[in-house]
Design brief:
Elements (H helix, E strand, L loop, with lengths): L5 H6 L2 H51 L2 H6 L5 H5 L3 H28 L9 E5 L4 E5 L4 H37 L7 H8 L4 H27 L22 H6 L11 H35 L6 H13 L2 H11 L5 H9 L13 H28 L4 H9 L4 H29 L2 H7 L22 H9 L7 H25 L1 H4 L6
Antiparallel strand pairs: 1-2
Helix pairs in contact: 2-19, 5-6, 6-8, 8-19, 10-14, 10-16, 11-14, 12-17, 16-19, 18-19
């Protein structure tokens, strides 16, 4: 792509400049991806160096430490207790006792079963007391995977705590050698609500994030490498096992399925529609929301609070109610079709709002505008009030039209301030489950993709297809759904990282200061 000098760029007309900006954006995407890959490599290199430095420090601490420090390696907290820091030492020792007890009683079992995910599944038996056949349950693959992952997290937490214990001994030795006094238990407690109060406050939320966010994500990723499904649910039916990349191969295979199109073609088709939907849903709401906010804020408009209240009512009603109601209004036998077709005789037959591919896709975009504009209107109202009015006054003096004021002042300012919001809104629309599922349920059905898992429709997004795969009754395939979840995460992450680095609000933070 040709690079223009500043003088050459100024000589371009507005369409050439717009085209140059668009081409520059897409031309920068490969470079952004390459920069991201380089950052990953640099990050891995730094991580390797950090781990090596930690190992070196551990060895040096053991070699040069006194006997109290050396004993603290196998007995956590011993050095702290021996040096008078009893509370700190007891906490270290108590954690080690709990860890050893857990590993001996149950953790070791879950860890040993993790490679196989169970050895003996359910089997038929006989109950002599009730004189009837019964099912005898043995291993549970789901619990093995879940508690196995939890055990690994616990081991990581133990290793980290053990490292802190070793580091504390080294620090304590250095403090005593310098002639200073160590902190007592009271000092530690006082520090928790004073100097280290931020750590005290963050401890509980961080624990919650690890348990309720990170752990489920790791579990979901691991499920993608198993054959976990309704037929292999790990307990009441058959055990599920590790299958490697089989599910990835299934989803990305171009081999046709039962006479229909391949999984890869189905995934590609839904991915393209998901990106188109996210783009339209984001930018239609964005620009129309700004337009509505400007119209309401315009001087001379009466009853501004009334107009804002009417718009806000759209989002005050739960989407489960409003979208389901709208879905019925536009149904084949709904109010609009009956009114237009039967009463007013405007059409010779009912309009296929949800039965035709194009109609359905246009309708979901239009209805999303109806429920999305109020959010943008409220946000844009606050931002528009913060734009310095002297900019508009200067523009009017120079003879700028309303369109020129919007293009040169309002829009650049809005894009600068709301750039990160636009990105998060785009990502949110890619995973916008409510609008699609409550309006159409993914309909109309895509006949070419009907052989794939789940009832694939023309308005299905990746997130709704994923949901359908898990709700397929006896045909539910949780592992395949997990693979789709991973691919969605990769697509979203790639878009986020590339676009975020190209946004003006990130590259030119000082523009509107």
């Amino acid at each position: 792509m040709r690079k223009y000098t500043d003088l050459e760029y100024l000589k371009l007309n507005k369409w050439q400049r717009a085209g140059h900006k668009i081409l520059s954006f897409f031309a920068g995407i490969p470079q952004g991806i390459w920069n991201f890959i380089k950052k990953i490599g640099l990050g891995l290199g730094k991580a390797g160096k950090a781990i090596g430095a930690e190992f070196k420090d551990i060895v040096d601490t053991f070699v040069h430490g006194d006997w109290k420090t050396k004993l603290s390696f196998p007995i956590m907290g011993f050095g702290s207790i021996a040096r008078g820091q009893v509370l700190r030492g007891i906490l270290f020792l108590l954690f080690e006792i709990i860890f050893i007890g857990y590993m001996v009683l149950t953790g070791g079992y879950w860890l040993s079963m993790l490679p196989s995910l169970g050895k003996q599944g359910p089997e038929k038996g006989y109950d002599p007391i009730y004189d009837q056949p019964i099912t005898i349950f043995h291993d549970d693959s789901f619990k093995i995977l879940l508690y196995g992952v939890l055990t690994i997290f616990f081991i990581i937490a133990f290793i980290y705590t053990w490292r802190v214990n070793v580091r504390q001994n080294k620090i304590s030795e250095e403090i005593l050698k310098s002639g200073k006094k160590l902190k007592s238990g009271k000092d530690d407690l006082r520090s928790m609500v004073d100097d280290n109060f931020h750590k005290t406050l963050l401890a509980l939320p961080m624990t919650g994030i690890v348990i309720f966010t990170v752990l489920p994500m790791v579990f979901m990723v691991l499920v993608a490498f198993t054959n976990y499904s309704a037929a292999y649910n790990g307990y009441s039916n058959n055990l599920f096992h590790w299958v490697g990349l089989d599910k990835f191969n299934q989803l990305l295979s171009w081999k046709s399925v039962q006479g229909g199109q391949s999984y890869a073609a189905t995934f590609g088709e839904i991915l393209v529609w998901t990106l188109i939907w996210a783009f339209l849903a984001t930018f239609t709401n964005y620009f129309l929301g700004i337009l509505v906010a400007m119209m309401i804020n315009k001087k001379g408009i009466q009853f501004k609070k009334v107009w804002r209240t009417i718009l806000v009512l759209t989002i005050a009603i739960p989407q489960f109610i409003s979208l389901m109601y709208v879905s019925k209004l536009f149904a084949e036998n709904g109010y609009f079709n009956l009114k237009l077709f039967n009463d007013m005789h405007l059409f010779t037959k009912a309009l296929p709002f949800w039965q035709d591919k194009t109609w359905a896709r246009v309708m979901v975009v239009l209805i999303n505008i109806w429920i999305g504009i109020p959010y943008l209107m409220l946000m844009a109202t606050g931002i528009l009030m913060n734009i310095p009015q002297d900019l508009y006054e200067s523009a009017k003096i120079d003879g700028a039209s309303a369109w020129q004021q919007y293009r040169k002042i309002t829009l650049p300012y809005m894009l600068f301030v709301t750039g990160p919001y636009l990105l998060t809104s785009f990502i949110g629309n890619m995973n916008n489950f409510n609008v699609i599922y409550l309006l159409t349920g993914g309909a109309p059905v895509n006949p070419a993709a009907s052989s794939a898992a789940g009832s694939v429709g023309y308005t299905d997004l990746l997130i709704t297809w994923l949901f359908k795969i898990t709700q397929g009754g006896e045909k539910a395939d949780y592992a395949l759904a997990s693979v789709i979840g991973i691919l969605v995460f990769l697509v979203v992450s790639l878009i986020s990282l590339v676009v975020y680095g190209l946004m003006p609000s990130v590259k030119n933070e000082e523009d509107f200061q």
